[in-house]
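Ligand: iron/sulfur cluster. Inputs:
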Amino acid sequence: MSRESILAAIKNNQPDHQALPDLHTFRRPNTGDPAAFKKVVETLGGQVFEIGSYTEIQPLIAEHYTDLNKVVAIQDSYLPGAATQWETGDGRQLEDVDLAIIPGQFGVAENGAIWITENEVKVRVLPFITQHLAVVVAAKDILATMHDAYEERIVRPESGFGVFIAGPSKTADIEQSLVLGAHGAKSLTVFLYTPKP
Amino acid sequence: MKVGLFIPCYIDQFYPQVGIATLSLLEKLGCDVVYPQGQTCCGQPMANSGFEHLTHGCNELFVNHFENFDYIVAPSGSCVLHIKDHLHVDGKEQAATHIRQRIYELAEFLTDVLKVDNLKAKFPHKVGIHQACHGQRGLGLAQMSELVAAPFSKPQQLLNMVEGLELIELKRSDECCGFGGTFCVFEEAVSVKMGKDRIADHVNNGAEYITGNDVSCLMHLEGILRRQNSNVKVLHIAEILNSI
Amino acid sequence: MEHQHKEHALLAEDFNANEPRVNWHDETLWWIRQKRDKIAWSIPEWEELRETASRIKHNVLGNLHDYLLEFERKAQENGAIVHWAANADEHNKIVLQLLQEQGVKRMVKSKSMLTEECHLNPYLAEHGIEVVDTDLGERIVQLAKEPPSHIVLPCIHKKKEEIGELFHEHLGTPAGNADPKFLTAAARQHLRKEFIQSRVAITGVNFAVAETGEMVVCTNEGNADMGAHLADVHIACMGIEKIIPQRKHLGVFLRLLARSATGQPITTYSSHFRSPKAGQQLHIVLVDNGRSRQLGREDFRNSLKCIRCGACMNTCPVYRRSGGHSYHNAIAGPIGAILAPNLDMKEYADLPFASTLCGSCSNVCPVKIDIHQQLYKWRQVITQEGHAKKTKAAGMHAMNIVLSKPGLYKTAGGVGRWVMRTFPAVVNNGMNPWFKQREMPAPPKQSFADWYKKNRPE
Ligand code: SF4
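Predicted complex:
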């Protein structure tokens, strides 16, 4: 009922059509700079490790994290011996995950954001509910801008849920002092991967 | 070049020296200046209070007084902006359009029309520019700090030609002083607080004088300075450019 | 809904009773404005981006009818259930019904200015349902029983000591602890419990893509995601103007939003919700509440381009010195002052006058809304529609300045005579607020006109 009246009012009141602007001038194809990406992630409060093989992940984790009881790794190769059977449930089963290591499809140099979808993480809440988050991204998959991201890599949605994650969860709601670890992951580690020749 | 001098009402009444400085500056620069007697107000105080529909009288008078000049110049950015944006008169639209296109605030008239590149002026003091909003954001007298665009400032360009004058840097280069027409009385508390903060910025940075293109803002700042018994003075830019 | 409250000028005066606090509020917000400037300057094409965003939104306004239908169709194909609400009341009823169907008494909500606009929380409370706001700032003001004072920084008016006290009272933190880190950690623990328990989550929407039927929600905290991904039912509430045409347009808006809002390159999370997760219900409530009317007002329709970044508030010299609550509206600041009169012209007749028309807001606005020009135009409309009662004082006071000096009155000519006819009472009125904290220049011996007659005889 309201639907029809709202739509009728809009039709009656909307201004004349104006063409959409061209977005092409904003594109910077093939200029994604992993070093720039790294710098931005760090200013957002994340840490970045450049790795040449997934086998480097385990020692880095041992070195930089303490008290990890439950670790979820999306690929076995990230961390052999991580938790299994974590996928079953409505998400609440992940309440006690300390660290999740997940793949990111690509990163964006201008803002440090990494694109992650349900296809990879399987349980949507995983990258949020985990206490700490680690994302593996290939250095060759760093794009320059958000325009490149949407027009090259994610022209169409390929899953029910996707998210850009840029840094750890944070808030500055109390007197504008920045605190990492609001409701999502308290820390973000990025493994920037360039396969050894 | 026939220039019609528009002296807004509060300048006429409270700051005649600004009118005199403007006139003599323009004459020094070789303009043929006439001040049409009987001119009143641009209508801005009423329009900004929501009474634009009652400004017909003002508009008609304005057109009658100024339709026959090559240029109209006024030492007030906000009055000029108001005329530029809102002067319309039934049956005299052509004359009104002419005025809207040919009215200039003093500083931009000097830099853009007369293309002044030197002035025989001397003012050996530390001066802060109060960049009044209507002149700046409305008329484009100076670049706005909000925009990602190359900086420029027409008043500063002129003040740089004054011998001995030292411009001070402000923490907030173009924040509003809080005059705002009727705002200054209707929102007295915020208006005064804004004025106090602007003044503090100038004082903290060593200004002896605060100058600007809008007497209304300066009147507001001066009112607060005097209540504070401050030694800092306000001067309209015309007075500095005309000083020897 | 009738609210009894003072007008902006008086509420602002109250706020100014504590000058150090005004300074603190002003400096904090100015600092955010500076962060915004800095990051904007790091993007050479910044002004083109703003222009592009504005033009995309213009295209949206001109095709809103078709885009909404496209969005609805796609969203339904994605498995969402779409509801339409003509006004706040209908919106609230729809949400209530969904909650009652689920039989929930308590649920989580992430930031949504729309639900603030609709006063959803008090409505649900009346029906025995408690909403837990999960954005930290919103939770804080909720505990304080106050509305948000800023659309992006809901508790920007609160000192950490006050927040420490609130947490002590409501969350049992130790008295006297006002450390932001500690308090944030306490809130995290408290709200994690709520997320885990809640079967329903409400979120706002930043952008809804017609082409794909998906909705993008931006947060730094991760609260929208924690709520929505754990709940059995996700209710997304959005104003009809949140539509954008295509996915690629997100590139433009996500580049602008956080940079304008807080000076960050992007929010931590930009979540794209397309279809419900397995076993979940996704409801989308499309709300008009005056927007289609605003769309028909040529002078004001551009206000619907707003992406709620809050930059116009941070830059507004009046907002910074009067506080968000002085606007007595869900949305404060310059944008609130041009949106509110569309909702209730009489109630909000004072807001377009709570500005000096300095124009800074229009310059920072990422979608280039001509905010200060709309403020000027609302003043005309409000006056002509006969709601000038609240604002007449402004005119009277101003004319009082003019008229309190006989010399000025004489030369003011037509103006003076008009004022005399209209407000005869203001002459010789000794209550002129100008003089409360300011002097007036001493009247000179002669006016400029007199001087001219003497010195430039014809
Ligand atoms: S009006 Fe513009 S600046 Fe203000 S909140 Fe909306 S988008 Fe941001």
